[in-house]
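Deliverable D5.2: sample structural annotation.
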Amino acid sequence: MYKIVWTVLLSATFFACQNLHNASFSADGVSFVLPNMWTIETIDSLGGSGFYVSCEKDTPDQYAFISFTILDGESEPTDAITAQEEAVRENPFFLQWRTRFIPPQTAQFAGFPAMKGGYYTTNADKNIRADVYCFVCGGKTLTFLQQGLLQDSLQHAQNRQDIEQQFKCQ
């Protein structure tokens, strides 16, 4: 009986720990590692001109989303921020919400000079915040978007810092 109980407990622990491994992405000189409990949901090639990677936090009690858009070639980060804002404005999903945009400002992402913008919005009585970082590295233009519940802003900041520590671009 004890052997069965221990076998079940060890198996459950093993499978639970498998979900805690950090997911990672590496392609075309860009790599990052996600914090625990995050998963990569989508990796799309952008017709040979880059990649789009979407990631979600794998817990039912939090809403959190991260994406990286990696485009070949160097573009002005301010233009990338403006394009992101226009995409939000044109998306019918956002039109039904009250959305307030954050003016772009200079920042850093993983030690790279960046422009940071974002927005606040409301959906189903939930306050949502998104931060958008655009920067150039390794001959590519990258956009990092992090969106989640406003009340979880401290956790989002920690997640971003964890990603920045592991981020590499050549």
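Annotation notes: The longest strand covers residues 112-123. Strands lie at 24-27, 30-33, 38-45, 50-57, 64-72, 99-109, 112-123, 126-137, 140-149, 168-169.
The annotation will be released with the project's public dataset once the embargo ends.
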